[in-house]
Amino acid sequence: MKYENVIFDLYGTLVDIWTDENRKRVWESLAWYFCLHQAKYSWKELKKAYFNEVKLQEERLNKEIGGYAEIDLMKVFEQLYLKKGQKAEECILKETMLMFRALSMKRLQLYEGVEDLLKSLKEKGRKVYLLTNAQRVFTEREIEMLHLKEYFDDIVYSSDERVKKPDGRFYNVMIRRHHLNPATTVMVGNDGLCDIEGALVAGMQAIHVHSNI
User: What mean pLDDT do residues 137-155 have?
Assistant: First the structure.
């Protein structure tokens, strides 16, 4: 079968990534950054408050929409500032998130051959999309840094849609937006549940990439 549309997962499929959000150094530096914006936290207090707020917002969203809900971490960071009496502007929230990401990042690079693959698909007239369980604030910058943006006809982030793979509603965002025929669309990903089972349920074919993640 000739596939007209190819939908890729990002992390673990095209991009080799390793983050560690539990390191003390991450929270020490992030607490210092909060303090610069008049939100005084100790690193232990900030770490606990962050994970508690993530859990709280996930529970609320799961009750609201069910399935595989995806929160927007910007709202988490907004609450962390509010707990200290600070109403942070959007630009501060984004910079705080990017600081957090940079501090927790240990590796970010393309897998070998990724650019050649994407370029080949575009040259052959395929539509190439990205469907990623990711926070737009983090991932949009990383896609640009890795020079991938030019290869995709569209990118859908789970943080924008409040739902993530393998939920069929997330796949349907891409299907409806571009009037894709699932029978001529293939999903490429490294996660057996999110990328493979989710795509099959959505009526697509799937290719399972066995990466280091």
Answer: 97
